[in-house]
């Protein structure tokens, strides 16, 4: 019985397979594209032809491995650009990326006055700086925001640093820029960034913990950013480790944040030295003193390392990740912090997982926010909805590309095959 | 430019969409199938025709809503049967399910002697009992096994109750039965069962905790069973809550299992009463005494409830689930256990998630294992690999169904459309 298939949907999926392969591998021959997609060579070349025609993909002649020189395909960097924006504590960073996810330009501007107006004008300035001379369209803008964010609505629910409450940031900025805007919290963005380009490369189940003033985690599970359902995820900082411990800002006692955040460590250090009056100390100063031999500082780093290992051991037992990454200032605590952390984590984690988990410091440092914010957009661009994000493909559809679906024929593919870029 | 699509793959995906819709909704008209798949009516009817021809789907005339009587489609219950097997502590349960996931027959046989031979012959007996008079083929067998299981290999790595170590159970049983066998641990199976048919129905992010002799959890995240990567997942029983607490079997101190498992509660109760000699007490006896006014028993239930709430609050903060389910004997502790559990969970969980999480007792009780074991198979049967599991469809492919892909035509669909089961 003849089965009629939906040509538009199939073509979308085939195109997506090829775009994703080129995203993952950089450059592939038509033979490889057909083999890895499971498409016939004819079908694969027809999709490639369409992507070439819309300038989404480019081709070049590769080196011969004994026979004909193969034609190699890769994403066209100028197809469009993605902007990642990180709303930091005192400055706003923006970075532009080409379609093949290479950094093109970056800009850092001081945060304007708090409140919507000041921050927004700084965002506009930073984005303007990295988009002024791009040789292609902006596909979308990703924003890594501090505080509580509802990513599905693009809303910043609460961000004390910015003085924001219930700000519909995605809507405001997409109005200003005329391009789609995705907003998520900075920890989720950094988690994506480290998993794709940083210390978690190649891992499908990653726990990313950032320990600074607060402690929060992001999760990549089964290869995807996990957002949970009720807006609160990754709150490892409020795992209670010492039921009768110090009071936390959240109202509970003995949370990890009261034991291993920067303010907690500074408090602990000063308490150990019997200092009680006012006094400021940066984390950097604490570590310098520790490595210069200050025993109170050394004890502080060791204790906090142990508490972090304790909390991460619990997380490891619950989620069985293959990688645990630690970032933020605290990750710079050096071996005095890391050694007890690792020992405690291994001790807490149930075998056989314990020895195999990759535990490492985040690599991307202050770039994690912009790289991750751009990833929020790239994840959409390389999704089944890609047509919505790629003007070149969308325009082709509108111009009648969809009519071509109807008059199928063998010729296009057959002719191409005899052009002979297929090696065996 | 004509784009040639891969007909076999497209047809598979379209067929899967329709099978999944009928699985979720029970019965749908051709109009609904087309609307919900996004296929043209012609395309939808062609897939349905194929499924009717292979007797995978059946049709009947529905009630008129003013116009023609619609034709309604549903899964054919006799297409094939799935067997779920639960390897319990002292008995083996098997249950057979029709293609539309209705229970057909169940059997319980006492566990044979431990060691491979005894257990396996009991499994064969129980499976034999529920497959002897089925009106269709067995599609596959799912096994819920206790202990440490490598689901990807179908291996029971360690199961003290059964006296097993590194038993390739899937391989052994598929050899005996000549059908595919999937093995996973009993907690994962029960998690699937409760999410699909029990207290977690309709939820996409579920934490399922079973508290008996031990305490373990299963996770459904983003709608899928989450297995992690290193074989250890859901070990919430070994979350350390009291760093200087009692020694746990795992070698650490103060794990949740030392505070809220059945043996821990019995120990705590006897300690509160100053009993030190040998003595056995069932959980049932403990709760009876508590509700009869025994203060030590009441304190025991309350304390364990609070510790469970504490641990679940940490899990809620990490994963932001929409449902938390508690099963096992301890879940039968009644309000003396549940009230402090809920209070502590709400107190620990960070708003705004706290009030919205659905917290409930598992509903499926001793059937969770067999229902869940069968779900392990149904998840595969309704996956892109469905042809491997459905002999009727596979045989059609072999008989030349794939040739039909080539000679596409409008006729089949057109003729069907004029038969007019399409209402508006």
From TrEMBL, chains A, B:
InterPro entries per record: ATPase_NBD, HTH_11, ROK, WH-like_DNA-bd_sf, WH_DNA-bd_sf
Keyword Transcription regulation: no
Entry similarity comment: Belongs to the ROK (NagC/XylR) family.
Protein name per UniProt: ROK family protein
Lineage, uppermost ranks: Bacteria, Bacillati, Bacillota, Limnochordia, Limnochordales
Domain Helix-turn-helix type: 15-51
Keyword Glycoprotein assigned: no
Entry keyword set: Carbohydrate metabolism, Xylose metabolism
Entry function: Transcriptional repressor of xylose-utilizing enzymes.
Gene Ontology biological process: D-xylose metabolic process
Region (Disordered), start-end ranges: 391-424
């Amino acid at each position: 019985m003849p089965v009629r298939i939906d040509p538009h949907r199939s073509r979308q999926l085939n195109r997506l397979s090829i775009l994703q392969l080129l995203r993952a591998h950089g450059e592939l021959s038509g033979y490889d594209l057909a083999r890895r997609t499971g498409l016939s060579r004819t079908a694969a070349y027809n999709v490639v032809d369409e992507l070439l025609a819309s300038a989404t993909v480019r081709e070049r002649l590769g080196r011969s491995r004994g026979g004909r020189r193969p034609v190699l395909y890769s994403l066209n960097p100028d197809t469009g650009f993605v902007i990642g924006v990180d709303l930091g504590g005192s400055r706003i960073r923006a970075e532009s990326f080409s379609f093949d996810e290479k950094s093109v330009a970056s800009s850092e501007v001081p945060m304007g006055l708090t409140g919507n107006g000041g921050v927004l004008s700084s965002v506009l300035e930073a984005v303007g700086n990295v988009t002024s001379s791009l040789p292609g369209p902006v596909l979308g803008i990703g924003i890594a925001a501090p505080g509580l964010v509802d990513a599905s609505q693009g809303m910043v629910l609460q961000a004390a640093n910015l003085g924001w409450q219930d700000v519909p940031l995605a809507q405001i900025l997409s109005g200003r820029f005329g391009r789609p805007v995705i907003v998520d919290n900075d920890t989720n963005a950094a988690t994506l960034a480290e998993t794709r380009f940083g210390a978690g490369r190649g891992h499908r189940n990653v726990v990313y913990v950032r320990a600074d003033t607060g402690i929060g985690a992001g999760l990549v599970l089964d290869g995807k950013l996990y957002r949970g359902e009720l807006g609160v995820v990754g709150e490892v900082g409020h795992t209670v480790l010492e039921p009768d411990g110090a009071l936390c800002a959240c109202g509970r006692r003995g949370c990890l944040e009261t034991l291993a955040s920067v303010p907690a460590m500074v408090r602990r250090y000063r308490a150990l030295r019997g200092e009680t009056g006012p006094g400021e100390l940066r984390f950097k100063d604490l570590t310098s003193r520790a490595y210069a031999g200050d025993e109170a500082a050394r004890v502080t780093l060791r204790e906090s390392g142990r508490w972090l290992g304790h909390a991460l051991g619990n997380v490891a037992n619950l989620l069985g990740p293959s990688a645990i990454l630690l970032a933020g200032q605290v990750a710079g605590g050096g071996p005095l912090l890391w050694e007890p952390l690792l020992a405690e984590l291994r001790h807490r984690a149930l075998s056989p997982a314990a020895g195999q988990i990759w535990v490492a410091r985040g690599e991307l440092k202050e770039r994690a926010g912009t790289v991750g914010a751009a990833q929020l957009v790239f994840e959409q661009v390389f999704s089944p909805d890609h047509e919505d994000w790629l003007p070149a493909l969308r325009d082709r559809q509108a111009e009648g590309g969809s009519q071509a679906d109807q008059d199928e024929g063998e010729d296009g593919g057959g002719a191409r095959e005899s052009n002979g870029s297929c090696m065996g």
